[in-house]
Model the fold of this input.
Amino acid sequence: MTAFRLADPALEPIAAKTINGERLSRADGLALYASRDLVGIAQMADHVRRRINGDRVHFMVNRHINPTNICENRCKFCAFSRSKGQEGAYEMTLDEIVAAARESVPEGAHEIHIVGGLHPEWPFEFYVDMVRRLREALPAKVIIQAFTAVEIEYYAKISDLSTLEVLRQLKDAGLDALPGGGAEIFSERTRQAAWEKKTSADDWLRIHGEAHSLGIKTNCTMLYGHIETFEERVDHLIRLREQQDVSGGFLAFIPLAFHPANTELEDLPSTTGYDDLKTLAISRLMLDNIDHIKAFWIMVGLKVAQLSTVFGVDDIDGTVVEERITHMAGATTPEALTKDELVGLIVETGHTPVERDTLYNVIRVYDDMPATGSLGS
Ligand code: V47
Ligand code: SF4
Done:
């Protein structure tokens, strides 16, 4: 039996449940957030991570593309979006989107990740054409992971189709998976305060359930570190867990650390490394039915992403290449990493780097790497 060295006796009942593989309750989630025993929480999260993923830590070669930042919603936490005609607004043509995606093929990409604003003039057919043209231009091994549930809901609105029909048509055109964005915090209070036009919790979860029913796998996220409470974070995790019980198609959970610069919430502080690591570990403990917990290094930074591999995380995302959403909100991380840098980062922690595609099919296991002492060496 695994023994944890806990400094906080309040964690003992949670440790017993963790060892027995029992589901944690809302009260357990709140007790984890109330505890200052970060090392105790890390040990429990690491135990669960090892049970699900062994000593593997995943990464991928991918390319992010944001076709436009023109957006009808203008959420208060978003520094990326612009109104049509505003300085800094941009739109890519289909040719430019396809060319950007093709550039990543010689680099060995296995995923094109597309998220953008809700453009007031582009018709739904534009997005179907985008996916069809990408599918024709890319080798079958490159997975197209595109459009958050927020975008899917918007396409339904502009086309007068149901969200299920929108998903069906995008799937027929070649869409493989949905990214996990747009979930934010599933609390009506926070939605009304900072993203009132955006998809409600019920609709976000319904759209992911519909995608799962069509065989489209999806990710899920939580935007934390702004105006939400710990109770709202725990409730968010529980709603994701309940949805996964029903529809089963979430591949990975990614907590997204709020970046305040250039947003309407810019007076708020950035998240701390302590909160980032604790939130990743608590996510691993609460989400017993989602296999992968991902630290998006762009948002938490390379140092926290590397450390997170002993806080329950088994995935540090990918090479990314171009990132606008977080960088426009003040991120100081690089926009891209090489495959060697990602492998070096993981090897140093003693874990085995595993290159994967979006669906967690294994591309290569790096089990023959010499131990390194610094990033990329
Ligand atoms: O939906 C917007 C968030 C999301 C800010 O599925 C912000 O693998 C922090 O969903 N500070 C888009 N976050 C990114 C996203 C994503 C990223 C990486 C991997 C995956 C995946 C998905 O970014 C948005 C919103 O929730 N966001 N503004 C900000 N200032
Ligand atoms: Fe638009 Fe998404 Fe930014 Fe909200 S977060 S303003 S929906 S691009």
Remarks:
- The longest strand covers residues 217-224.
